[in-house]
Structure formats: structure tokens, C-alpha cells
Amino acid sequence: MSSEVFQDEAVILEVRNWQTADKYAVCFCRDHGKVPFIAYGAAYPKSTSGRLVQPFAHLRLTLMPGRRVATLRSCEFVEMPSAMDIEGMAYGTIIAEAVEQLLGDEEPQQAVFELVLSAFGLLRERNKRLVTDSTLLKLLSLCGFTPLLDHCTTCGRPMDADGYFSPVQGGFLCQDCSLEHDLPLSVEDRQLMETLLTLDFSQPAHFTVRGKELMEVEKIIYRFLTFQTDRPLRSLDFLAQLKQATS
Ligand SMILES: [Zn+2]
Predict the structure, then answer these.
(1) Second label for 45, Cα 20 to 30 Å away, from 78, 146, 191, 204?
(2) Distance between Cα 141 and ligand 1 center (Å)
(3) Under a CB-based contact definition with an 8 Å cutoff, are residues 113 and 28 in contact?
(4) Rounded to the nearest whole angstrom, what is the distance from the C-alpha of residue 185 to the centroid of ligand 1?
């Protein structure tokens, strides 16, 4: 970590209480990538930084780099956050956790910053589940894990019939090449994955999905993500509990 105080535009991924008066947060900065920091005094009710440093907030931060975590010097809103319901927060937390797991500290990636920023905005306006699925696929792709869907990743045969997805190979496997633990991938699933991967977040088109394809594609996304990060997302449990409580 550099030792100079710096200012950057950031989205907040995670906020936790720290000691009695402080908060620990992780943000993703436009030019500095993922940066964990401590906001001293932020747990006090009258603290400005405590009020501003909230999950999914879009801020301008001044940070003092430290040995392991940075220290927050000051912050201000880039845009005032609009309200997000609890379901939006649950999905936002999944996106934030995926970013935290896939990217190391201070690996700047403007495209990831833009993606997360627009995803948090779209969670307030559009179908949260589809926004999240699309964001996770785009994120995997930006991190170098674009699912390979055109040809069988073992024999090279073009995908012209239903087959399987291999998280290990990161792509399609035909009927002949599939192994026991692969996930079903139909021609329709592939179409949905491509729609989600290429969805334009500045003007997201409306499209319809069927439950079967959506469930199969989500299985693929989460298994593929877990394979890349080595551990399942904790925030998925919260979403499952929320769904149980509200169904
Ligand atoms: Zn094959």
C-alpha cells in the first residue's frame, strides 16, 4: 500500500462495528480498487462519517494508507443514496461479497467499479434477482472467468444440443464428454446466460425468463463462483432465510 494520503471515488461494500466507537469498512475505489479502512469514531450517533459510510453508498473518500488497513480522514456523498428495501440489501450484499472474494486489495479495475456502482443503482429499480445474476456473471467475466459456451471445452464440438456445464473447465461439455458432477446446461440456459452477460446496464432491456432456466443458470453461476473463490458466499444464507420468512 502506498503511504500517501489519497482521495478517490468509492462504493462501500461492507461495514461492521469495530471496537466500541469505530467502524471497519471495505470499499471499492475507482482508481485504487478494494481498500479496507477504519472510520474512527463512526459508531457515535452524531458522527458524519458514521452516517455516510453505509453499505452501497457512493462516496468521495480521503484515506490515509496504513500497514494493514487504511484510515478514513473524511468523506462526502457523490450522490445521495435512495432507499433500498431489505431484499435489495440482501442481493446487494451478495454482489459485495463476490467482489470482496474475487478481487485482492488494491487491484484497481475501473470496469468493476462501474459495474458495482450501476448494479447497486439497478437493485433499486429493476428485478433484483436478475440484476444480481447478471452482475455476478459480468464480474466473473471481468476477473478472467468468462464462461465458455460456444464449444464443448473438451472435444471442441459446437454447442448445438443440450449438455452440461463444468465449473472446473469453466464452460460447456457435450453429452459425450460430461462427468458425474457437472450441471445441466440446455440451449435455452445458454441463451439466458448470454443475455445476462451482455445486458446493457445503462439501458437494460426487458426480457422474460422461465423459472426452469433461471434456476439452472443460477446453480451454474453460484457453483462456478464458489469454484473460483474456494468458499460459498455467506450472504446467500441470509437471502434464503429472508425468502423463508417472507414466503
Ligand atoms: Zn465434448
Answers:
(1) 78
(2) 23
(3) yes
(4) 13
Query: Is residue 113 a contact partner of residue 30, using CB atoms and an 8 Å limit?
Result: yes
SS3 content of the chain, % helix, strand, coil (to 5): 40, 25, 40
How many angstroms does the Cα of residue 187 sit away from the middle of ligand 1? 15
Q: Which residue type sits at 75?
A: C
> How would you write the pLDDT of the chain (247 residues) with one tens digit per residue?
568 999 999 999 999 999 999 999 999 999 999 999 999 999 998 999 999 999 999 999 999 999 889 999 999 999 988 889 999 999 999 999 999 999 999 899 999 999 999 999 999 999 999 999 999 999 999 999 999 999 999 999 999 999 999 999 999 999 999 988 899 999 999 999 999 999 999 999 998 999 999 999 999 999 999 999 988 899 988 888 888 887 7
- CATH architecture type of domain 86-246: Up-down Bundle (1.20)
Q: How far is the CA of 176 from the centre of ligand 1 (A)?
A: 6
